[in-house]
Amino acid sequence: MAFLCRSAAALLKPTGAVPVVLSAARLCSSGGQYEYILVEKRGEKSNVGFIQLNRPKALNALCDGLMKEVGHALDSFEGDSSVGAIVITGSERAFAAGADIKEMQNLNFQDCYSGNFLAHWNRVSTMKKPVIAAVNGFALGGGCELAMMCDIIYAGEKAQFGQPEILLGTIPGAGGTQRLTRAVGKSLAMEMVLTGDKINAQEAKQSGLVSKICPVDQLVSEAVKCGEKIASNSKLVSAMAKEAVNAAYELTLAEGNRLEKRLFHATFATDDRKEGMTAFVEKRKASFQDK
Questions:
Q1: Of 8, 224, 231, 282, whose CA is between 20 and 30 Å from 156?
Q2: Active site residue 286
Q3: pLDDT, tens digit, for every residue of 113-144?
Q4: Cβ(93)–Cβ(136) below 8 Å
Q5: How far is Cα of residue 223 from the mean position of the Cα atoms in its chain?
Q6: 165 catalytic, yes or no?
Q7: pTM
Q8: Which of 69, 165, 222, 260 is catalytic?
């Protein structure tokens, strides 16, 4: 579960800075404008989907409406054959400082259980296409959980990660206890969850939570470059590779190796595998058709 950290709110005052997006295509499936996010395609070939959380006054607190919009945007990119990867980012001050506490303050057990509260947040983790989180500033509670649902995390030099739910009398509820432990190990995860303490970008890199640290003003462009690299490969085979890596968290080594072998063999039924190996032998660049 995501939570807006009081210390973050006290330390930071949101600015009216212009969003990173320059020309956002902000239409949702119903034909109206997104209220809480900015959406567009980026990259030289416009093959990277781009979602920017856009609630600056609330440090991008993850309200229900915002998460539903993220889900709609992801669905759109998943069905767009021109998109090979997706980047999710926030502002320089906050990726997302948590969930909207005012929305959940008066909920009771019956509300949460019968309504399967936060279940739709999981859409990010079920994407077939690779998703990259570009994290500047605070990624706390649900913000940290959202980042961990992504396949790759790039962090700005001033990024901070944390699960401060314990300070609000509850625990993480959108994967924080599970994904954080798998990413950084039991001891550090336990310390963060039980104390509410944050770790900075350097500590996150050392612990394996993030794969790359970038200057604040270069973070988004670096994430998009990574997305372009991914999108230049076969989208079909990329989905297979993602499935195989994710299985490592769920299966035993023997089971994971069996799945990997089956997926590896499956690539030999694709035109892209044949094209990739033929291009290598002929010393030319492969032209993948996602078939």
A1: 231
A2: no
A3: 888 888 888 899 999 999 999 999 999 999 99
A4: yes
A5: 11
A6: yes
A7: 0.85
A8: 165
